[in-house]
Amino acid sequence: MRTAAAALLAAAALTGCGTDPAPPPTYTVVNQGEKRLEQGTAGWAELLLPDATVDQAQDAIRAYGETIRSDATMYTIAVVHDTTATTHGRPATTYVCMGRWVKDQQASRTWADSSITSTTWPAIGMNCPDRG
Prior knowledge:
five-stranded mixed β-sheet; two-stranded antiparallel ribbon
């Protein structure tokens, strides 16, 4: 029995069966900024990720959220397939997923009518129209 168990463990190690999470997809930040408003500082970012799936878009949004190091209390983070789509000469508003990053519970109340809840902060609420 021990030999079989050891062989199974060795085979699992050789085939790369691990618990390491996959790295987030590589995206390009194509538009970002912050603006001071009456209710606080808000930021935005558009991440270009051609052919992104919903899962990849959500991973990219989470990865970008981990990089926010400002006094902003809310960020809107969108993943787009391309930047060339236009509607009547203006950039299109289509996206794969959009996330709303909020710094804490107060920011959720201020920016999201308390719709983003979490036991840890910051937190991100996701909207992915193609998710069925």
